[in-house]
Amino acid sequence: MSARSKARKRALDILFQADVRGDDPAVTLASEATRAANEPSREASWLYAREIVDGVIDNQDEIDEQITTFSKDWSLARMPAVDRALLRMAVWEILYNDEVPTAVAIDEAVELAKEFSTDDSGAFVHGVLARIARSS
């Protein structure tokens, strides 16, 4: 698994944890930063995970607006928390990170959805992200 794939999984964990607990993602991120300081072997994945989470925090209103606009008949509150976190992460990569090809951001999010969410989540995540990608 590449460092960026590991980073996405870490970012998913942070965003999901904050969402489920109702915590500020910045607080959860700070807590994870303390733990990451004791794991120098995972520094490469930590740095990109932090970039993703910071990007989602900084752009959450715009990201959530995109998700709401393109998730036909699904409010953010109705989505599984894992799907919300994955969509936020991938939308940040698609709209705000020029270093990541759109197809890679979508594929990585879909794979994580298949692994960690419902049976239908892979298709749902793919559909929302594809519509966002086409519109941007």
Layout: helices, strands, pairs:
Blueprint: H1 3-21, H2 25-36, H3 43-70, H4 81-96, H5 102-116, H6 121-135
Question: Could you explain how this protein is built, in words?
Answer:
It is a single chain. The chain has 136 residues and is mainly α. It has a single domain, classed as N-utilizing Substance Protein B Homolog, Chain A, CATH 1.10.940.10. The chain has helices at 3-21, 25-36, 43-70, 81-96, 102-116, 121-135. It is globular. The chain starts with a helix and ends with a helix.
Descriptive tags:
single chain; 136 residues; mainly alpha; N-utilizing Substance Protein B Homolog, Chain A; 6 helices; 0% strand
Average of per-residue pLDDT values? 94
Q: Describe the global form.
A: globular
Give the low-confidence spans.
none
Helix/strand/pairing category: mainly alpha
Report the end-to-end length measured between terminal Cα atoms.
Answer: 29 Å
The CATH first-level class comes to: Mainly Alpha
Q: CATH H-level name... which superfamily?
A: NusB-like
Topology-level CATH name: N-utilizing Substance Protein B Homolog, Chain A
**What is the correct CATH architecture?**
Orthogonal Bundle
Instruction: Please report the total strand number as a whole number.
Output: 0
Strand content: under 5%
Radius of gyration: 14 Å
Helix % is: over 70%
What is the oligomer described by this structure?
A: single chain
The succession of helices and strands, N to C, reads HHHHHH
